[in-house]
Structure formats: structure tokens, C-alpha cells
Design brief:
By secondary structure, the chain is an alpha+beta fold. 27% of the residues lie in helices and 36% in strands.
Length: 191
């Protein structure tokens, strides 16, 4: 089973390497890894898709929390979440077949981002199953090049994985003791 884990980390050199090394040392297989900035300066968001048994996510979370740069970890596999991948696909397509290709692009709500006399580059953002179906429908045209990002995911509704939410007391204490947060200035307030 594929599990989707979101980790909020400090935006510092070497963090990605430390996270990837943790997975490598533990023998966990990373199916995809997407990293980007967040709404809060100095914080990056990693969306990690891990292939493994049910108990593996708990172990992954515990191991990630041991890294000093990790602020928060959430398993969003079974949560109500929106997830997407992005792909750019370069397709061989002569002018005579362009209308047929445009029909496929329209059905999948993709976008043509570049056109030349014999080639078209198509962009799509979709869930994994839709992405796979789209790519299979492009194969008869002749895929020349394909680049695909890892999955990104966000919880639906009022729930978030953002750092401004309440963080467990033990994690706050760890962050304070490690020197990450100044004493008495914890941004996580419980009601």
C-alpha cells in the first residue's frame, strides 16, 4: 500500500539529504518526494509517498520526529485530502492528428503549453489514477519525453498540517530544548 506523509521541516541546507538518508538507512522505499516552500517563511513542506505495510507509517513518523529539522509530521493517507501530481509530456503529433490529440487533452482537462510543426508539449495536474490513464491515452501518438512530479497533498476543510496549529507538548519541549524556539515564545497555543 502507498502511504502519503506530509512533513514540515526547517528550510535549511542538508535537510532533504537527512530525510532521504533516514529512509535509506531504515530500508523504506520512497515512491515519490515533493518539496516546496510554504506560507510561512523558513518552513518547507515535504510530501513523501512511501510504499510499505500498514505499520510502516508509524515507524516513519517516529523516525522523522527524531530529526531536529522536522517540525511536524502527518499521515494523510486515509484523511480527506486533495492530492495532485504534475506532468509535462512531449508528444509526436503531425498537424493531421492534432485535432485527435486535442480531444484527448480536453477530456483530461490538460493544457497544451508548446506547439511545433511535429511536436506538442502537454501539461496536466491530476490524481495518480487520472495521470496514468492520460499517459496511456497519449502513447499511441508517440511519447518522446515525459517528466512527472511527486504527489502533493492538502487536507480538505478546516484541518491543516500547518505549523500554526497546536503541536504536542513533548514535541514543543523537544524543539525548545534543542534551541529551535526561544523559551516562552512557543507559537502553539492550546485552547
Amino acid at each position: 500500500m502507498k502511504h502519503t506523509v506530509v512533513a514540515l521541516v526547517e528550510d535549511r541546507p542538508g535537510v532533504l539529504n537527512r530525510v532521504a538518508s533516514l529512509f535509506r538507512r531504515r530500508g523504506f522505499n520512497i515512491d515519490s518526494l515533493a518539496v516546496g516552500t510554504t506560507e510561512e517563511a523558513g518552513i518547507s513542506r515535504m510530501t513523501i509517498v512511501v510504499d510499505g505495510a500498514e505499520g510502516i507509517v508509524d515507524q516513519v513518523e517516529r523516525q522523522l520526529y527524531k530529526l531536529i529539522d522536522v517540525i511536524r509530521v502527518a499521515d494523510v493517507t486515509k484523511a480527506e485530502a486533495v492530492s495532485r501530481e504534475l506532468a509535462l509530456v512531449k508528444v509526436q503529433c503531425a498537424t493531421a492528428r492534432r485535432h485527435e490529440l486535442m480531444d484527448v487533452v480536453g477530456i483530461f482537462r490538460a493544457h497544451v503549453v508548446d506547439v511545433s510543426p511535429e511536436h506538442v508539449i502537454v501539461e496536466i495536474a491530476a490524481e495518480q489514477a487520472t495521470m496514468t490513464a492520460f499517459i496511456e491515452n497519449l502513447r499511441p501518438f508517440g511519447i518522446l519525453e515525459l517528466v512527472r512530479t511527486g504527489r502533493v497533498a492538502m487536507l480538505r476543510g478546516p484541518e491543516t498540517t500547518a505549523v500554526h496549529e497546536e503541536e504536542p507538548e513533548a514535541v514543543q519541549r523537544f524543539h525548545t530544548e534543542s534551541g529551535r524556539l526561544p523559551e516562552g515564545e512557543l507559537p502553539y497555543v492550546s485552547d
